[in-house]
Amino acid sequence: MVTSTKGDNGESKKKKIDGNKDVDPQLWHAVAGTTVQIPQVNSKIFYFPQGHAEHAYEPVNFPADINIPSKIPCRVAAVHYRADPRTDLVYAKLRLVPLQISQVSIDEDNVAGVDDMSVTKNQYQSYTKTLSESDINKSGGFSCPKKCAETMFPPLDYSDQLPSQDIYLMDVHGEMWKFRHVYATRNILTTGWSDFVTNKQLELGDSLVFVKAANSDLHIGIRRSKKRNDCRFNFPSKRKPETGTLLQPPYGGLSSSLGNERRIGDKVIGIGKVKAEDVIEAVKLGVNMQPFDVVYYPRVGTPEFFVKTSLIRTALQIGWDCGMRFQMAIETDSSKINWLMGTIASVEAADPAWPDSLWRLLQVTWDNPDLVTNTKRLNPWQVETLRYMSSSKELGLPQLPTFPMDGQFSMPYLPNYFQTPKGPIMYLPETSMPYFQQPFNRDDATTLTTVSNNPACRKVPLVRGWSVIPRTNAKKDASEGETVEIENSVSSSKEAA
Amino acid sequence: MVTSTKGDNGESKKKKIDGNKDVDPQLWHAVAGTTVQIPQVNSKIFYFPQGHAEHAYEPVNFPADINIPSKIPCRVAAVHYRADPRTDLVYAKLRLVPLQISQVSIDEDNVAGVDDMSVTKNQYQSYTKTLSESDINKSGGFSCPKKCAETMFPPLDYSDQLPSQDIYLMDVHGEMWKFRHVYATRNILTTGWSDFVTNKQLELGDSLVFVKAANSDLHIGIRRSKKRNDCRFNFPSKRKPETGTLLQPPYGGLSSSLGNERRIGDKVIGIGKVKAEDVIEAVKLGVNMQPFDVVYYPRVGTPEFFVKTSLIRTALQIGWDCGMRFQMAIETDSSKINWLMGTIASVEAADPAWPDSLWRLLQVTWDNPDLVTNTKRLNPWQVETLRYMSSSKELGLPQLPTFPMDGQFSMPYLPNYFQTPKGPIMYLPETSMPYFQQPFNRDDATTLTTVSNNPACRKVPLVRGWSVIPRTNAKKDASEGETVEIENSVSSSKEAA
DNA sequence: TTGTAGGCCTCGCGCCGACAA
DNA sequence: TTGTCGGCGCGAGGCCTACAA
């Protein structure tokens, strides 16, 4: 008997994943995370070359012969929600049309609706779990948290001795995956899980996003661990449709349609990043007022490099200064939202090449520095200033001994802060002057308020002609001085007026 | 205990195979096969665009706006013997410098030596075996023919109950592979074989070439099955240096330096072929008298598209005509040389676009058509005419009932052949006239001899001014009328004067 | 509740003897 | 002599229970 172990088993069923196929926007947002903000079509944004460059997997050397502004006003002409065929990473492709400065100051925010997602946000439920060592190990299955199983999967028949059912999950490409779901003191995905791990090349720290649509269809998305962004990624050589795990239509082929990969040996690096030349090309087109496309992979720690003009206007209304207290929402690996608190250490352009740039203008120190790694500089529109605090406990002072800080910021700023407990609050006069493009020239600026005596923390006025008014739009209490976890069904409401 | 099953095991040891590194010429020829003829540096050849096009993995559409001759005289400026990093296929890269026609007719064959290989040919021994189903099966090892083991491997100690030793074979890239060689009623390679099969992606019908150098170093080469030329090839995703089979230096990375691959899904197609644009580029340069490079993968059934001018001159001395008997040496999968016999069915340009082309000028019928598939047209310099035969048995007549032929050639040509048993024999007058570039115009030609009455087999004179002389350079007897097998240590001597 | 360890079973691989072409 | 089959043993994978954090 000849056993034909070789041969093209299931080969004919293979088909390329279409890398240009759009993903359902709601599914996309669920997988990307609720803090990811993609501007609506026809809204107006600022494009930041510096921010774009942070998404390249290689250093970006901008051409020195052309004058590149720190931000370029654009209209969002198109938005495509997509997913990388190999990594399952979701990304957005935006077509941006540069605007004249005169087009920015008028007619702002007259796009209908606040956020194209907010109206339909409730139709999708999601649950995110970061994979543990045991989940990845070949010896076992996937430990499914009780809440995940209860909210996502159909109910099991617990009268059975070993309740079990088949679960069908569709990935972002539309491929269906079958898992055996058993309940034995806890919920476990067994058969099918190992193939999924192998096929998606899941590693410790990666996250799985279970998404249930309104019609109870189940989807599965992947967020790669932050550590893998700069790391290598195995190029999958072969799917195993013969195991029956991957169901019809079994797209198994690999697309190289993106074409922005770099390799070391047989591993692909630069996952979720773009080519430096793409950034330069975009900037060149933008400078020349030509429409251009940008690709944006959402990733924690690298903010969007396209920001709604209204957001920036709001951020500019604040007189940012050293010692100011703020909070910022970050999404954890398991889709929970942490409100982290910190203090502004300095207000200074991040890159001397763009002395007037707002990009990562704020250098900050965190109350709990171990919760945020490698994020020392923030954009003004990323944070919310804290208006008041009633005691030293809320400032996170009790944590100081547990989380020792750098000597340079250990104590000096605290006395200064209490000298001006409310900080400088400013507003932007209602004028149609195109203030966004005004030069940020320190010598030309007017000194407003001195908050700190710390020599490393010079006061830096943002715009001439601002005055101080009380500010009342702090929305969340930072009670107890520790991070607040919000369930993933609650979205950040940073933009609410 | 945490078992780190994942991780980059042996990753740091990986290194790219240098696709530009030359292979030892003797090893190269042993792997390529003894019938492969690569011209010597500084020899003069004709380059055939038609032949080159046969090596493309896609149809070649030559530009219609330029006049492309059927052959371009060239000097061989450089020869590189190389091996494909992925498939282990050997190939030659030749730099050709186009010549004026006046440079061809004079000073022919005054290159020192006959063949740069012939002088050192005896220093390498080789043995070729085509892989059987059992060799490929995962269940077993490699059945090593007795002769292979005896001539290639060190002798075993047969006093042991289970004689065994480790065999080290170096592939064409310089990678060393270790095999366990045991003798149990026959020679078998066990441990290490399976990994080798997986890594080299060996399939049924592929051939292994064992080569022993003069210093007893062992090498291993691969010839892919003819069937795989147009088929898909798995892109190897991962070597397994951790098994210890692949020894230091363990180049494990995959090179994409050739860059001439085409893919369907995760499989590479066009193995051992080139891009159509490369052919067109070469032809364009050649037409403009610019030096150009060609890549040649030796393959059974696709003759070299660069042919020594002396070979063509010899071939042109024969007045090819229908009904002529010939023999041709072909190398089998296991490096044995078969002398096949056949009859010329017609002499007609293969492609109407090149009516004067010699390329595949001869349409032939084989005595044993099942031994040669898909080879109906041959180049005149590929075959040797048979000068005489003593009985009908030598014509292969007894085989006719066993191998039924098409009705169109079944009988009619036989009586005609016997009418002119010796066929027209011609010679080329010794003249320095540049006859190679003379137009091949049928209307202008002089009729010499009529050999056949078969209407499909019109007499076609090749060159004006030829006359018939006796020809005595038939070197091999086709005794018994069947194919003669010659051991692989014996090379074809077709070129001997 | 959920991460991790381990028992135990299955299956595929791989070595080698048996048999046959 | 050598291709193929099959027994047998080993080890990895995979399912599920036990235990602990």
From TrEMBL, chains A, B:
PANTHER family: AUXIN RESPONSE FACTOR (PTHR31384:SF39), AUXIN RESPONSE FACTOR 4-RELATED (PTHR31384). GO terms for cellular component: nucleus. It is found in: Nucleus. Homodimers and heterodimers. Residues 127-226 form the TF-B3 domain. Gene3D superfamilies: 2.30.30.1040, DNA-binding pseudobarrel domain. SUPFAM superfamilies: DNA-binding pseudobarrel domain. Belongs to the ARF family. Residues 486-497 have a biased composition (Polar residues). Keywords: Auxin signaling pathway, DNA-binding, Nucleus, Transcription, Transcription regulation. One of its GO terms (biological process) is auxin-activated signaling pathway. Residues 1-21, 473-497 are annotated as: Disordered. SMART domains: B3. This is Auxin response factor. It comes from Vicia faba. Pfam families: ARF_AD, B3. Auxin response factors (ARFs) are transcriptional factors that bind specifically to the DNA sequence 5'-TGTCTC-3' found in the auxin-responsive promoter elements (AuxREs). InterPro entries: ARF_dom, ARF_plant, B3_DNA-bd, DNA-bd_pseudobarrel_sf. One of its GO terms (molecular function) is DNA binding. Its main location: nucleus. Residues 8-21 have a biased composition (Basic and acidic residues).
